[in-house]
Amino acid sequence: MSMTAAVGYAHADPHHIGLVIEHPGPAPKRIVTAYGFWIFLLSDIVMFSCFFAAYAVLSGQTAGGPKGSEIFEQRNVAIETVCLLLSSFTCGMASIAADVRNRFWFYLGMAVTCVLGLIFLAIEFREFAGLVARGYGPSRSAFLTAFFSLVGCHGLHVSAGVLWLLTMMAQVFAKGFRADILRRMVCFALFWHALDIIWVAIFSVVYLLGGGA
Amino acid sequence: MLGKLDWSAIPFDQPIPLIAGAVVLVAILAVLVWVVVKGHLPYLWHEWITSVDHKRIGVMYILLASVMLLRGGSDAIMMRIQQAIAYQSQGYLPPEHYNQIFSAHGTIMIFFVAMPFVIGLMNLIVPLQLGVRDVAFPTLNSVGFWLTATGALLVNLSLVIGEFARTGWLAFPPLSELSYSPGVGVDYYAWSLEISGVGTLVAGINLVTTVLKLRTRGMNYLRMPMFCWTTLASNLLIVAAFPILTATLAMLLLDRYLGFHFFTNEAGGNVMMFMNLIWAWGHPEVYILVLPAFGIFSEVVSTFSGKALFGYRSMVLATMAICVISFMVWLHHFFTMGAGPDVNAIFGIASMIIAIPTGVKIYNWLFTMYGGRIRFETPMLWSVGFMVTFIIGGLTGVLVAVPPADFMLHNSMFLVAHFHNVIIGGVLFGAFAGFEYWFPKAFGFRLEERWGKAAFWFTFTGFYVTFIPLYIAGMLGMTRRMQHYDVAAWRPWMLVAAVGMAILTIGVICQILQLVVSIRNREALRDRTGDPWDGRSLEWATASPPPVFNFAFDPDVRGEDAYWDIKIHARQQSLEHEEREYHDIEMPRNSPTGFVCAFFASIMGFALIWHIWWMVILGGIGAFATFVVFAWRDHDEYVITAAEVARIDRINLEERRSLVSMAGAT
């Protein structure tokens, strides 16, 4: 082996400022898991942004069908929004309960979150079914295509969230507050709150802007 | 019961796909029988299929890429032969078959050769370079690999059951809409990319988290090897770009399956939206592929020049600049589609700006070589070949980034030559350089140099003989994807390109022979030190192949080129003689989750393509059940005792010590 190269080529502090902070080593598992899931959520938001972009492009293309202001019912949307925002609060309560390992409050928080999520889904489903029944299904016009896809994609996420929520409760029931289950709980909470953020955007972009026009 | 599937799906009247499919089927069955008869099945299951070890998964990714390279290469050979003989004649491939071949060639080469090859190398090497024991999410890593394999399986299934897309590798609507492509081809295309896209996204999340959160003590950001930096940039792009692909293909599928109107001509659908969305993914994709290759060249050039990388910080900056700018140039893929002069000018300038950080990189590699003790071993040959080739490809790229020039060259063979110039000269040369460079690390023996050099020279020459004529044909006005043509001036260039293809094929054969010869002579080529190239980064600090836990002790990093530093300060020797206290190591347990998950994904994908709805539900339930079972397991780690760690580590130390003492004796 040739080891003749000059020493001193590789400093983390080439200008001798004296401000080098040594990296302490791999992060603990809880951080790694939550961080990775957070990156997944960012990618999920990128996916939603495509559907938002499609909606922005197509929202005027009604092809002789109804406009947004003719089909949106502000009252339903208000109830949906309240349900979802409230469910974020109860989900937060469940997270706190999990952190202090209180089973009763954990189950209660999760159960209320689940019920609120189901109410949200039921209202959304009724809205969709009503539109389809009136002949305003997604294949009626490009506007309705984009509307159903964007809102439906969020609805599918909430459905998956409810399924995950029930699995979480079952895991805690069967296994207790084990470290790996608590890590999953952190991820679930992140997921649920992210869905709220996306809903706020849908509420503003689709229902508020579209309802006025 | 079976949806759209019946006997007419098997192309009995087309001998080429049928024979090819039969040969592949026989080969797979033969391998399976051999594995079962020889009793290798338990070994394969426990050590590879269910493995969550990043090194094993990396090797499997590269194996998948190599096999698919042969498939995509066969498509290329068929196209070159077709265009060589189809002057004023129909050639030997009917149009509907030819269209499937160029679509499959592009899809396979990008998604199932280039992607798995670079992801495989990143998987294999990055945790070692960072000095850690595994990636952030080992089981998810396995899931990602197997979902990629599912995508590859579905694409190849289309060879014998049904058909593949005839729409080109990006399936532009309205051609890819149901009214113009009523067959299952586009569905095969879209579902296999949806499934493998999820796999890629998982790999991206995993590697980003690994680089950002799992680094050994002292591995500050500005001490990471260049390959880790380019891995970070490339995987950030995966996380930001692949969801766009997923969403876009989902929209296309909604149009096709449920009568939506995203991209249709009717009811207000917008075709240009597909162009924008698909290229908002498609252009970053180019950099997802080439950035890791840049990282490989950085490692190889610095190792084989015996010098630290010139301009490390400017290299980091250039990498991250490319990472950001790559998202701002997508429109240059459709200058001719009516965006107007102002928009075209902005995107043209942005595209040319990308050449600046790339140029910085080229100069850094050149200055790394300048004044170094250069060893022209195979990885270095690929690197130098890359620099020459990539500069030509980059220059033609700057040329087509000029909108007026692009109006002349758009959709011509010039463009085909350009992107092959950068993808073969950049990504494939990089993949081969990485393959030759890290093979000894993965398997514990070197590859035979003679065949490797032959492979390089044939591929290098063959590349130019194939693609320079395509540049010329493009300037003579030849458009891409022509099944036949009547212009006499193009003919000679097509013949030359066919000769080039033959030379390239010899290159591939040399590559295969190199592998065979090396495996046969592996005792003679054995690398006992773990450091066959006099390397500089931490992957060379451990044995070849590395033990499952990579490092017995977390390495301490004090600067760039961590292992070189260790060697120079000869800390290695002094530490080796100290008796260190070994500790138990916890490693993640193997899991069949990835394989089972991909099994259900394959069933679901196939059922979706053929509209077999009960099977879709079955697959969905199976996939969910797999997750629940995985979530329910109680022990996800096992312990390697300190005594075992000590035993494994001491063997390696012994080897290294005896080598050092031997070196002293001579």
In short:
The complex is a heterodimer of chains A (about 210) and B (about 675). With about 210 residues, chain A is mostly helical.
Q: What is the string of helix and strand elements of chain A?
A: HHHHHH
**Mean pLDDT across every amino acid position of chain B:** 89
Number of H/I helices of chain B: 22
How would you spell out the order of helices and strands of chain B? HHHHHHHHHHHHHHHHHHHEHHEH
By secondary-structure content and strand pairing, the structural class of chain A works out as mainly alpha
- Note the quaternary state here: heterodimer
Shape of chain B: globular
| Strand order across the largest sheet of chain B | 1-2
Q: What is the β-strand count of chain B?
A: 2
Helix vs. strand class of chain B = mainly alpha
Counting H and I runs of at least 4 residues, what is the number of helices of chain A?
6
What does this structure look like?
The complex is a heterodimer of chains A (213) and B (666). With 213 residues, chain A is mainly α. Helices cover 75% and strands 0% of the residues of chain A. In chain A, helix 5 runs antiparallel to helix 6 (179-212). By secondary structure, chain B is mainly α. Helix content of chain B is 68%, strand content 1%. Chain B has a two-stranded antiparallel ribbon with strand order 1-2. The longest helix of chain B is centred in the N-terminal third of the chain and has 36 residues, at 95-130. Chain B is globular. The chains are: A mainly alpha (213), B mainly alpha (666).
